[in-house]
Amino acid sequence: MVVEIRNPKFKSIFILNHNFEHNLKVNSKNSKVLIIGGGIAGITAAVALSRLKIAVTLIEKATALGGMVPNYCCKATDACQQCGVCLLNDSLQALSQASNVEVHLQTEVTDLTLDANKFLYTFSRPGGGGEGRAEALLLATGFTPFRAEDKPQYRYGILPNVITGLDLERQLKETGSVVRPSNHTLPTSIAFIQCVGSRDPHLNHPFCSRVCCAYALRMANLIKYKNPQTEIAVFYMDIQTFGKDFSLFMEKTEKQIRFIRTIPGEIQKGDNDQVWLTFQDDDGLSSRKQAFDLAILSVGIMPGSDLEFFKDKLGLPLNGDGFLSEANEIFSSKGIFLAGTVRGPKGIAGSITQAYRTAEEVAAYLKTRPV
Amino acid sequence: MDPIDLKKLDPDFKHRLARELGGEQIKKCFSCGVCSARCPIEKIEPEYNPRRIIRMILLGMEEELLKEEFLWHCSTCYTCQESCPQEVDFTEVIFVLRNMAVRKGLAPAGLGAARNLLDQQGRMYEIGDFENEKRKEMGLPEIKGNAKDYRELLKD
Predict the structure, then answer these.
(1) Residues 32-61 of B with CB under 8 A from A
(2) What mean pLDDT do residues A154-175 have?
């Protein structure tokens, strides 16, 4: 039984499953594809497969669908900034109308084996567990945000007015405005620091997370739109291009936001809970300190914590960065497919596109697979 | 800032530096400036600016760079090397630059005095009766100047 709960505040639908029978056999007769992960990639793939009349079981360990996306805010100013967050609503709507899709929330896969082109799995959930089988497996377990505490020079978790991009997303989503956590007043100056945890060989994360420039600049534009007096500086190495209108977007953004091509050395505590950034400006002079009311660390996409489990159970190869980038090409002939950020950093639109493509690949595999 | 005389630039300088032990990564720098922002020396002595030194290397300003006294200001704390997103081993680069300067006879005068002291004493500071008395009070054995090992090391 699938129950829909509409939440008018967040304008999104949460689908809850109240099917908590003990030792339930998950649709063992007609479910063909097991999708693990109910984020934007998993939902999109489930909808796409159901449209191709393929029965799907979708397993999600959290209490609601959506994965990371429900944490993000709509970034529209007077016009849509095409951040893609609202696309989750469309996907959830489509899923709620899809036939042949079974959704299991608060459910975790505990064991997984590939035996003669069949996937046998066991799962646990509050009040019980069970087992099931599927002909194809689609992994869409997503990513883990970078832990900003692992860059101790930025004092995240110590200074109240140092927050991450994810904290800012949640704040904008829940309250619609940005305030300083220390005293709940509007900040007059904000510093965005890009590439926190990304492109950092010392942390073994040499890759670009590909979403941080997009979300940081869109939120910077949004804050500037809400409070035009706010001074915003963005500290960056390179700006990752995104969207087909990127050049127009940048032209507009550069007019209202100060871009400084450098990485700040550290953040220190100043008076009135201000944060002092030490950085080398691009004027060629020596480094200097500047006070800001709020510093935002643009944390990136790190490999999900579940990937080791699938590596152990199915022998999938993690790449040097810790993602499963090559697994889809190598293992699709065995019925293992991957979509979304399990394969590497990407945004919402990228995850959706890849999920559709992977669903097509799954359908093609089911047609031609050896029986 | 003085204009750069293009005729004086040596485009081969960065390649020569990259062939030396420790200088291999120099061409990876994309000038983010985190080395300068975190450098404790740069806060006291703005003349010493790691980002600027790397730009001088990449431009080929060998002549100007090697004669600069600030090359000898680095305290080799390795903070720059730890922060660099491109793994440019800047502290090692400073050692390479210093070696290059010594080979050209551009080392500061004080360095020659320090070398002579090492040659004679085997250490940077002379151990005299005063130091040995202090050591005796603390229960430590007496030290006699023995420069033999260091002389071997400094032979070249």
Answers:
(1) 32-34, 36-39, 42-43, 46, 49, 51-52
(2) 97
